[in-house]
Write a sequence for this structure.
């Protein structure tokens, strides 16, 4: 794989994670295509998770960007009691690799770990994710984000800013 392309993709994804951590919501949303799908499935058993959000339970499923826009609206207006106060987060992205390179879209897989702190408690979530990135000019738009949460014993709030 082209190391320059991997570096360019990694920089885009790092910037997206940093925008989330810094609560730069407008710029964060701009990284997502309006038709993007976001799916965080639940586990069926120890080794299998829901692959179709219409036929199983998911921790989170947005069929387009409006779900994410709504969550951010609720954070900004204080209408998300579960996220008040909002957790401080830091996202770590690792092992970024390009699985497919098509004329208009890349498929990228990575491992992630997010540390958070809220109301005197700290914790982390981790897993892996697959992104479909539309090529737009000299950058990308996230067309699909599929997240697999490996430590799914959830003893706190779990929201988009954790993954």
């Amino acid at each position: 794989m082209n190391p320059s392309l991997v570096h360019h993709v990694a920089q885009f994804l790092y910037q997206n994670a940093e925008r989330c951590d810094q609560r730069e919501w407008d710029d964060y949303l701009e990284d997502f295509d309006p038709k993007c799908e976001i799916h965080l499935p639940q586990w069926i058993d120890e080794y299998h998770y829901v692959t179709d959000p219409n036929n199983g339970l998911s921790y989170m499923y947005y069929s387009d960007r409006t779900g994410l826009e709504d969550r951010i609206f609720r954070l900004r207006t204080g209408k998300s009691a579960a996220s008040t106060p909002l957790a401080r987060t830091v996202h770590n992205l690792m092992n970024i690799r390009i699985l497919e390179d098509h004329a208009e879209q890349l498929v990228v897989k990575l491992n992630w770990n997010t540390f958070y702190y809220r109301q005197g408690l700290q914790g982390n979530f981790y897993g892996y994710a697959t992104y479909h990135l539309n090529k737009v000019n000299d950058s990308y738009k996230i067309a699909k984000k599929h997240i697999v949460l490996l430590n799914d014993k959830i003893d706190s709030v779990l929201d988009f800013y954790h993954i």
Remarks:
- The mean pLDDT is 95.
